[in-house]
UniProtKB/TrEMBL annotation:
Residues 100-149, 321-369 are annotated as: Disordered. Residues 100-110, 129-143, 321-331, 350-364 have a biased composition (Low complexity). This is Uncharacterized protein.
Length: 441
């Protein structure tokens, strides 16, 4: 019909509004990392151009994968109902802040003990204050993040733990009992715990969570211990943590996979898993609402392996807070090419990531738009993704239109150049901005 399409950007259970899809994984990596970025502050006009502004906090996966070749690594402009045409113009992806960890009081455990910790005195703050940008959602800290966020972490009973396409039983642990998952026909199966939403109000954007547990793997048929290389992030033969979260009515599942590359693996004994997760916008905005799926799962290992876990803790270790950039650095990119920043001025706040986390050397590539052909005057670096893209009339000059879309996941895609992203360390905030409209084909 050509009629403009209405949508509600504040409804994060709907995919009727435009959104950004990130995908990244290695050519040999069976785990695809997906991130979906919305623009809840957008004032939607069904008959005109709209200003999309999305925020993404670089997490460990992006930071560790940034220096390696990928099979899939792209940004895609997608969303909208089936049969809708999406038109985009003036697309920019820029660095706005770098989040740096604020040290916690010395009496706060940065890595949880395997038993219940001694309560922190109420006179001492248990979490560094969060100074998130005003445009980002915040939540009020509670006392629930002072200790282990998981139930029955000592694994002395099955309790809050569940089997996920496996069979779980109690077995001998490091001390006392542990939980064993057997009958596993896929690496994605294992030991799961549904998370209680109301316990996580203290998790704001930039909060670092530590996931620690004892773990071992053995072959179910032979009982022999299984070897794996924790530093190989293209393999799923080592244990890993799976997070999943989405609403009951939300068609977008958010997946996060947490590895432990520093783990010293002993195939015949217990191993110390230590994983790190930086709370992003999706976790922070979803944390206060009921979810259909929101769980942590201990998974990984080859088909036919038995995974045994004990003494599992999930604790808050740091809160990342934004370090202000110099006043001459654009915190939201202009829709045209920005004036180059003088080389004498730092273009990115220094990253003070914990020593155990990977870092990368900043380059000048993050001083301006990280995307190619962002003005949309030519198709250039943009591609169709299960759609047909053409040039059309833009805000000024040309824009790119995607039509023939039979799913919301289709749209306008650009493959990302890996070498341009060495400046993206853990805690870097990226801003994605563009003009967009939707109409019925």
């Amino acid at each position: 019909t050509g009629a403009g399409i209405s949508c509600d950007p504040t409804d994060d259970t709907s995919i009727d509004c435009p959104l950004i899809t990130f995908r990244h994984n290695f050519a040999t990596d069976p785990i695809p990392f997906w991130n979906y970025i919305r623009s809840p502050e957008m004032q939607w006009d069904p008959n005109g151009w709209n200003d999309f502004h999305g925020v993404y906090v670089v997490d460990r996966d992006w930071a560790t994968h940034g220096g390696k070749d990928k099979h899939w690594w792209y940004i895609m402009i997608s969303g909208g109902p089936i049969g809708s045409v999406i038109v985009a113009d003036d697309v920019t992806m820029t660095v706005g802040h770098t989040l740096t960890p604020t040290p916690l009081p010395t009496n706060f455990p940065t890595k949880a003990p395997t038993s219940d910790p001694t309560p922190v005195p109420t006179s001492a703050p248990t979490k560094a204050p969060s100074q998130n940008p005003s445009s980002l959602p915040t939540s009020t800290p509670t006392s629930n993040c002072e200790s282990n966020l998981l139930q029955d972490g000592d694994m002395e009973t099955i309790g809050a733990w569940k089997a996920w396409r496996s069979e779980i039983i109690l077995t001998t642990g490091v001390t006392g009992k542990a939980i064993e998952a057997k009958g596993r026909t896929k690496w994605r199966t294992g030991i799961r715990q549904d998370l209680v939403v109301n316990d996580f109000a203290c998790l704001t954007i930039g909060t670092i969570m530590h996931i620690d547990f004892k773990v071992r793997l053995f072959d179910e048929e032979t009982g022999a211990g299984i070897s794996c290389d924790p530093t190989d992030d293209t393999s799923i033969d080592c244990p890993l943590i799976t997070f999943r979260h989405n609403f009951a009515t939300d068609p977008i599942p958010f997946w996060n996979y947490i590895r432990s590359p520093e783990m010293q693996w002993d195939p015949n004994g217990w191993n110390d898993f230590h994983g790190v997760y930086v709370v992003d916008r999706d976790w922070a905005t979803h944390g206060g609402k009921d979810k259909h799926w929101w769980y942590i799962m201990i998974s990984g290992g080859p088909i036919g392996s038995v995974i045994v876990a004990d003494d599992v803790t999930m604790t808050v270790g740091h809160t990342l807070t934004p370090t202000p950039l110099p006043t001459n650095f654009p915190t939201k990119a202009p829709t045209s090419d920005p004036t180059p920043v003088p080389t004498s001025a730092p273009t990115k706040a220094p990253s003070q990531n914990p020593s155990s986390l990977p870092t990368s050397t900043p380059t000048s590539n993050c001083e301006s738009n990280l995307l190619q052909d962002g003005d949309m005057e030519t198709i250039g670096a943009w591609k169709a993704w299960r759609s047909e893209i053409i040039l059309t009339t833009g805000v000024t000059g040309k824009a790119i239109e995607a039509k023939g879309r039979t799913k919301w996941r289709t749209g306008i895609r650009q493959d990302l150049v890996v070498n341009d992203f060495a400046c993206l360390t853990i805690g870097t905030i990226m801003h994605i901005d563009f003009k967009v409209r939707l109409f019925d084909e």
